[in-house]
Amino acid sequence: MALPALALPPRYADAELIGRGGMADIYAAEDTELGRRVAVKVLSDRFAEDPGIRERFKREALAAARLSGHPNIATIFDVGEVEGRAFIVMELVDGGSLADRIEAGSVPEDQALAWLGHAAAALDAAHAEGIVHRDVKPSNMLLDRQDDLKITDFGIALVLDEAATHATVTGTVLGTAGYLSPEQAAGQRATAESDIYALGVVAYELLTGGRPFARASVAAEAAAHVSEPVEPPSERADLAPEADPVFARALAKDPSYRYPSAAEFVQDLSAALRGEETVPLPVATAAVGGAGATEVTQVARRPARRGRRIIPVALAALLLAGGALAAVLLTHSQTPPGGTPATSQPRQHPRAHPPPPTPAANPVPPPPAPHGKAKRHSKPKKHEKKPKGHAAPLVSSPGTTTGPGTTQATTTTEPTTTFATTTVQTTGTTP
């Protein structure tokens, strides 16, 4: 189908329609000045009357032109407007698209990894320049005659989204629901992590033959991206199970849990398909609601989050240690004058006994004493008073264990003018 001559500058001759996209018609033409075939994308009629969309279309094309020269990004040669219609001139990549190859049948793992590596290099280069694609999908991945992959249409999805807010454009956004990240499906702004998620969906489709959340309608598929866990690819196709956690990370619902770069995702996927474990970090699970819900473990890429979880645990342990220390100090506190001796009251709080002192050489055990009775180890001097009945208020010092069920404690009378030292031995439980 020939393009009317008024739609392009005279240098682009013999234009022929080769496809239609969400917002542009695509033509192959001859660049008469440079003597080469090029692809020309012309803004569709339904957008041509909106000057704002025309300007945005050209601005996005000029931004993407900064990426020209990368071997895996389609080069943009020219951007302009003629007769009220904006256009982009880019290199003609005529080996078909990745969508064509997927539709044709299964793709060998080695070839799939090679194409994914090309796409990852292109996306990481764009992200380094602050450019987000927003619409990564097989039909935007073109193949040249050497089967090298080139990504096209950077920024066009953003123009489509803005156009959809001003006019009813059926199919412009939902047409790519199969590769839409959860945050985009929820109406949030796309980021570099959104592109990595979409690349994960493309990889899943390349290796299993189907999209992870394919549903009967585009709305249901978009909703599945938001709320449903990804089915392990090893359960769909003959893939190494080591690939399952790699896809769980790439397709994590939370963008912060995904791979920090597209290249790292492809590197881990390549290792996993060889049977090597990539040891991803476990994080929270996502589950399908309702009866018989299933769970899938996702993985995190930010180990710092784990440190934040340790802080409350460490604080709780510190508080427990402080409480235990307070209990020990209370049990060793001095009994007030005139009060009941500590040995006559059952303890309300357990306390840790200090370790027994090192016994002296050839120790002589004290003679047995009746239950509950005090036994003096030395005869008091004349100026000392013998304890009768209840002893005077005592100050307890750490006891020593003399055997099973027997505790020996050294106590000292409350200081007056002189001090009397008495060793008391008790057996069993204090009544």
Could you please describe the fold and organization of this structure?
This protein is of the alpha+beta class and 431 residues long. The chain is 32% helix and 19% strand. The protein contains 11 helices and 13 strands. The protein has helices at 45-48, 51-65, 98-104, 109-128, 156-166, 182-185, 192-208, 218-227, 243-250, 262-273, 304-331, and strands at 12-20, 24-31, 36-43, 76-82, 85-91, 141-143, 149-151, 281-287, 295-300, 394-396, 400-403, 406-413, 421-427. Strands 1-2-3-5-4 form a 5-stranded antiparallel beta sheet. Strands 10, 11, 12 and 13 form a 4-stranded antiparallel beta sheet that branches. Strand 2 (24-31) and strand 3 (36-43) form a beta hairpin. Helix 4 runs antiparallel to helix 7 (192-208), helix 4 packs antiparallel against helix 10 (262-273) and helix 9 packs antiparallel against helix 10 (262-273). The longest helix is centred in the C-terminal third of the chain and has 28 residues, at 304-331. The protein is globular.
Blueprint (SSEs and pairs):
Blueprint: E1 12-20, E2 24-31, E3 36-43, H1 45-48, H2 51-65, E4 76-82, E5 85-91, H3 98-104, H4 109-128, E6 141-143, E7 149-151, H5 156-166, H6 182-185, H7 192-208, H8 218-227, H9 243-250, H10 262-273, E8 281-287, E9 295-300, H11 304-331, E10 394-396, E11 400-403, E12 406-413, E13 421-427
Antiparallel strand pairs: 1-2, 2-3, 3-5, 4-5, 6-7, 8-9, 10-12, 11-12, 12-13
Helix pairs in contact: 2-5, 4-7, 4-10, 9-10
